[in-house]
Amino acid sequence: AKALGKNRLVRYAPGMAEAAEEEVTLLQDLTAAVRAGQLEVYYQPTIDLADGRTTGYEALLRWQHPQRGLVPPAEFVPLAEASGAILEIGRWVLEQAVGQATVWTAEAGRPIGIAVNLSPRQLADDDVVALVSAVLAASGLPAAQLTLEVTEGVLLRDVDRVAGQLRALRELGVRIAIDDFGTGYASLTYLRRLPADVLKIDRSFVQDLGGDVRSRALVASMIELARNLRLEVVAEGVETSEQHAVLGGLACSHAQGYLFGRPLPAPAHDPAQPAPTGA
Ligand code: C2E
Ligand code: CA
Ligand code: CA
Ligand code: CA
């Protein structure tokens, strides 16, 4: 449990010992889960708002726990990140996702993109560039079809080193997306200091697009910012046709969300079919 305590501000409160114990148990289960094949990759489509077509998918990790049922990644990814288990799990996700994109590309007869979330720990790892390069080579997927999603959380590490890793990944031809843009304290610092190709507007801004004029102004500004920096923009978490319409009016190029498709196992998706607008 020592690794879990690292960099954490610890305040004693009733129930804390139980919570810590719970985390340790979950982490032990997770290590076993990888080997027992309880992890699964789900995929959520990204839509080109101009024509409604699926341009690619984001890979999202799922854990089918034998006793607890489906454990959300928000609960176990941070544990895996703290323990280092994310390196092994992340490699597996990357292999699955890139392999699946190769299959979809062949089926659809056009390039299908794949976005994989990369945790700060993975990005800091010495072997990440060689790993990505090897996975692409083994699958035959053109590097331009792979997007690696990072959050500004990577800025909490050695920035020069992170910048070097991101540059090396881009030299492979891979795209870099800034995930959850606008939620942290350093989104603009990220843009100033680190390379990127895609900006993903966080769901929290998209959620209020219907009525809230402030959210609308913020989203409009983020789209404008992306345009000025020559970045592709993806609006996350689009759930309603109203949000869809507002984004269309703001000339947002891409979107993702339950309106277009939920994260599902690969066989449930067919990139050759236009995504339903859901509404
Ligand atoms: P994220 O990368 O920001 O992923 C988007 C999350 O929003 C996903 O949650 C997705 O299911 C959810 N979502 C998508 N559309 C909608 C919508 O219209 N409405 C709402 N309410 N939610 C929507 P999920 O799958 O639970 O993943 C949560 C987070 O866990 C991810 O956030 C990502 O940070 C992390 N994660 C997931 N898979 C991986 C992975 O393979 N590696 C790493 N390092 N992190 C992962
Ligand atoms: Ca993401
Ligand atoms: Ca996100
Ligand atoms: Ca998120």
- The residue-averaged pLDDT reads 91
User: How would a textbook summarize the main sheet?
Assistant: 8 strands, mixed, barrel
Helix and strand sequence: HHEEEHHEHHEHEHEHHEHEE
The side-by-side strand order for the widest beta sheet comes to 1-2-4-5-6-7-8-9
**Poorly predicted spans:** 1-6
Oligomer: single chain
Q: Give the radius of gyration.
A: 19 Å
The tally of helices reads 11
**Number of DSSP strand runs:** 10
User: What is the 3D form?
Assistant: globular
Keywords:
279 residues, alpha/beta, 8-stranded mixed barrel, 11 helices, 10 strands, binds ligand C2E, binds calcium ion
Protein architecture, described:
The chain has helices at residues 2-5, 16-36, 73-83, 85-108, 120-124, 128-139, 159-171, 187-193, 203-207, 213-228, 241-249; strands at 39-48, 54-65, 69-71, 113-117, 146-150, 175-181, 198-201, 232-235, 254-255, 264-265. It is of the alpha/beta class. The protein is globular and about 50 Å long. It has 11 helices and 10 strands. Strand 5, helix 7 (159-171) and strand 6 (175-181) form a beta-alpha-beta unit. The model is unreliable at 1-6 (pLDDT under 50). The site of ligand C2E has 24 residues, from strand 2, helix 3, helix 4 and strand 6. Residues 58, 117, 149, 179 line the site of one calcium ion.
